[in-house]
Write a sequence for this structure.
């Protein structure tokens, strides 16, 4: 960590990170429990991991989950950014607030309702349940979160910046790609990561709109609850967690090295 | 490119989304909310909502959502602020989000273990001489875990608005002899209000309809509108009443949005 | 901007590679073939080896999908969109599915192994003549308790739970009919009693139990009871055997006043595509040796009388999970009460939680 913050602040940050990671380390710890349960550690074993690598069905489920999360986050980010731009264009306060409220409806609605109504809509539309219905739903419920993440960035952009760019002869497209997008990039990344979170966490909506053998990890985990979730899932989460960490760090290193200016940030 | 209709083309995907995934489901929910148990048109569901049991639930939903948002903000703001001062701030920020990618149910099970009678939290309490306490199934653990879940959602927008804050403003304020608190109150906070508001919306709105944690962590001792909807859909299979509660949730959300919307206007003068 | 575009391209490429891998894996498992059977069941509610041997023997590939509540499953079947060939709902749900005309009748001539089922579990009120359903597992609702933590105290009846020394010790299953039913049973009324006065009486009695209630939980109750977080739980027998296998201090008791008898049965939803394979599957599951193997894995009680001889004796002789016919006489199967009365029970339950 850095020297620019006081020791007290540093302790605060350390505690925050410790708390955020506490349950995850708890899960990881018990994935090595030979007792087979998430309490009463008996002795160290790697059996769970061995079992895991023989389980093709679970592997397919994990890959499904990752594809859905990445694709839905990507697409919802694009649509969400466009939506935020549109909302930002609305001048009247009342219209703007109404539009934003419409945007937020999917955030406030409980998952069962979203899931059930999407299911009804898809069956009316004659869409076959499976990969595409799940992807569409995940895109749909991630869009509002992206809008909420991007909108503050857009609205704090000063109009004089845009005017200046236009005065310099920039076309609409250039203003967009050279001025607006770079400015709101942190918001875009925030939206993307939040969409990823929503998608990975979702159980109820996916449950309703999935079918024909297509399953994601949350659906599988929730339906295991009746018979007790096995530590295989802990082991699986451990592996996913480690892979994620490695990807995050590598990504950071790569983007940081390709930048020339030392103070440039990944997100910009 | 320059004529008006092509200029609005970019709106199409978002408008389609609103039409199919917001308006259409809302109409469905409205339609169901006017149906009684036998599928006839009726207002009984709405009458039912205005009975003490649902009103009490509404109050408690708001109270907990408020509490959760407040606590989340209190911890998220300083965290976001300190993060912006770190060297590899973007990496640290990413590391704040990563825990939220692990399945929620699993993390909830972990919390059950941590807060349990023989769990880590109680061992800690004993070690510092406070003696073991009943932590599970209390308001404390419920709010704690809810805050745990929402905090990355709050930190992100606040971080983004703090990060662009021009350091020269702060220096200027310092040079002019402003105390740190004054600087914060007069300069930093007003400039980050948009981020704070986004964070509060992303926390408060879903917190209104929390349901899983009310059972897992609060042991069904906390009942919110989300819990009630869940039960109407998945236990009684009374979609009518479930939809009616959802209609009210949406109305409440509109009210909250308009209330905060007006404030923004005033703050900007 | 350039960086964003590049990132998007990378994500798309990764997804492409993953999708390709998935399709290869699916093909290697035979999931994309024609001769498939889609089974819709609770998670981990079947021995995977049994599925494997079924696939080997018949050449049919099983696609196993899971659900977590009966009601959610019903919604999926009702809406269509997926062709489930076999589903495993609980008995009250079978009645509902029948009412909604969502099931196909079963051709008994294709299931000769039906003769292995104990007659006690055939031809029950929720499905006369087993026209639409074949028993899979069954069980009861009872009390699981940790006598060691309770200093050797014995619990025999629902009424014992009202003991004032049990403050904050009980975990309930978060399920309206089980809990309101317990109130009714403890007063000597039937589980299916819908007399408003009796319901109110049961509610009042339950409210007086509230100080003893620690929490109302779902499936996580197993972990908490086994780890000693609470010493008493009102649970389904399937959960009880699960909990007891983890912690030997616990015992399961069927309350004297009576309790609920439940079934999970196999049915063929109307949307089924491979009805023939569904019959084959049912028949296979009723084979004594297969049923015995499956029961040992799942550890719920099997209705298959012939299977008992292939199972460990201590399992079969356990009166707590294989109660005698006299004991089962005190047990009642839930009747479908209709939406209004169910709604009333649900409302009372919500009120009870909010007390």
């Amino acid at each position: 960590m850095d020297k620019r913050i006081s020791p007290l602040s540093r302790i605060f940050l350390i505690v925050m990170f410790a708390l955020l990671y506490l349950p995850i380390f708890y899960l990881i710890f018990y994935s090595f429990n030979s007792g087979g349960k998430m309490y009463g550690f008996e002795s160290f074993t790697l059996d769970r991991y061995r079992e895991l690598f023989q389980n093709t069905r679970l592997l397919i489920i994990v890959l499904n989950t990752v594809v859905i999360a990445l694709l839905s986050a990507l697409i919802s980010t694009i649509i969400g950014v466009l939506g935020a731009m549109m909302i930002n264009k609305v001048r009247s306060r009342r219209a703007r607030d109404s539009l934003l409220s419409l945007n937020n409806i999917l955030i406030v609605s409980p998952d069962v309702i979203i899931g059930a109504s999407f299911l009804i809509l898809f069956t009316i539309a004659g869409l076959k349940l499976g990969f595409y219905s799940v992807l569409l739903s995940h895109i749909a419920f991630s869009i509002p979160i992206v809008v909420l993440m991007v909108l503050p960035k857009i609205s704090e952009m000063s109009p004089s910046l845009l005017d200046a760019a236009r005065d310099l002869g920039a076309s609409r497209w250039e203003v967009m790609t050279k001025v607006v997008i770079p400015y709101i990039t942190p918001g875009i990344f925030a939206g993307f990561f939040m969409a990823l979170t929503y998608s990975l966490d979702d159980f109820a909506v996916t449950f309703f709109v999935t079918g024909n053998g297509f399953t994601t990890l949350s659906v599988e985990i929730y339906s295991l609850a009746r018979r007790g979730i096995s530590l295989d899932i802990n082991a699986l989460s451990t592996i996913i967690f480690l892979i994620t960490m490695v990807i995050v760090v590598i990504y950071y290193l790569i983007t940081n090295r390709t930048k020339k200016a030392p103070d440039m940030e990944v997100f910009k | 490119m320059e004529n008006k209709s092509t200029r609005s083309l970019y709106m199409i995907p978002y408008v389609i989304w609103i039409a199919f995934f917001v308006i259409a489901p809302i109409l469905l929910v409205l339609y169901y909310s006017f149906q009684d148990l036998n599928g006839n048109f009726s207002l009984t569901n709405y009458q039912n909502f205005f009975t003490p049991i649902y009103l009490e639930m509404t109050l408690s939903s708001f109270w907990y959502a408020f509490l959760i948002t407040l606590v989340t903000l209190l911890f998220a703001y300083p965290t976001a602020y300190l993060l912006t001062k770190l060297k590899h701030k973007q990496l640290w920020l990413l590391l704040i989000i990563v825990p939220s990618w692990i399945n929620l149910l699993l993390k909830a099970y972990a919390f059950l273990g941590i807060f349990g009678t023989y769990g880590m939290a109680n061992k800690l309490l004993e070690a510092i001489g406070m003696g073991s306490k009943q932590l599970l199934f209390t308001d404390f653990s419920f709010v704690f875990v809810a805050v745990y879940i929402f905090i990355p959602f709050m930190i992100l927008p606040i971080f983004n608005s703090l990060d662009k804050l021009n350091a020269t403003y702060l220096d200027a304020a310092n040079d002019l002899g402003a105390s740190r608190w004054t600087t914060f109150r007069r300069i930093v906070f007003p400039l980050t209000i948009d981020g704070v508001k986004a964070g509060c919306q992303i926390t408060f709105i879903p917190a209104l309809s929390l349901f899983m944690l009310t059972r897992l962590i609060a042991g069904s001792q906390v009942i919110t509108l989300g819990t009630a909807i869940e039960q109407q859909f998945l236990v009684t299979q009374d979609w009518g009443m479930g939809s009616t509660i959802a209609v009210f949730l949406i109305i409440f959300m509109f009210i909250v949005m308009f209330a905060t919307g007006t404030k923004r206007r005033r703050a900007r003068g | 901007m350039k960086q964003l575009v590049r990132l998007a391209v990378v994500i798309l490429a990764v997804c492409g590679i993953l999708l390709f891998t998935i399709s290869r894996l699916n093909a290697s498992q035979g999931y994309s073939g024609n001769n498939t059977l889609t089974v819709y069941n609770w998670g981990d509610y079947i021995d995977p080896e049994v599925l494997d041997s079924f696939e080997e023997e018949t050449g049919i590939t099983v696609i196993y999908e899971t659900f977590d509540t009966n009601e959610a499953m019903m919604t999926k079947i009702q809406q269509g969109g997926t062709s489930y060939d076999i589903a495993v709902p609980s008995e009250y749900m079978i009645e509902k599915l029948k009412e909604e005309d969502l099931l196909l009748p079963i051709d008994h001539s294709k299931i000769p192994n039906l003769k292995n089922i104990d007659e006690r579990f055939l031809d029950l009120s929720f499905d006369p003549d087993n026209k639409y359903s074949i028993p899979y597992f069954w069980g009861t609702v009872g009390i699981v308790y940790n006598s060691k933590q309770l200093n050797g105290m014995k619990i025999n009846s629902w009424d014992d739970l009202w003991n004032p020394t049990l403050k904050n010790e009980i975990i309930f299953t978060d399920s309206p009919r089980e809990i309101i039913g317990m109130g009714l049973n403890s007063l000597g009324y039937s589980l299916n009693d819908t007399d408003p006065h009796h319901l109110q009486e049961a509610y009042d009695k339950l409210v007086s139990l509230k100080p003893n209630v620690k929490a109302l939980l779902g499936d996580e109750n197993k972990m908490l009871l086994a780890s000693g977080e609470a010493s008493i739980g009102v649970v389904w027998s399937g959960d009880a055997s699960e909990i007891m296998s983890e912690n030997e201090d616990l015992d399961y008791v069927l309350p004297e006043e009576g309790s609920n008898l439940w079934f999970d049965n196999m049915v063929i939803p109307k949307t089924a595509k491979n009805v023939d394979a569904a019959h084959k599957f049912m028949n296979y599951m009723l084979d004594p040796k297969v049923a015995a193997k499956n029961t040992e894995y799942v550890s719920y009680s099997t209705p298959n009388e012939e299977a008992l001889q292939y199972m460990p004796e201590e399992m079969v002789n356990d009166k707590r999970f294989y109660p005698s016919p006299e004991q089962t006489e005190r047990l009642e199967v839930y009747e479908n009460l209709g939406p209004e009365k169910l709604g009333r029970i649900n409302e009372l339950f919500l009120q009870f939680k909010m007390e």
User: Anything to note?
Assistant: Chain C has two domains: 35-137+263-316, 139-261+322-354. Chain C is about 40% helix and 15% strand. The mean pLDDT of chain C is 90. Chain C touches chain B through 30 residues (CB under 8 Å).
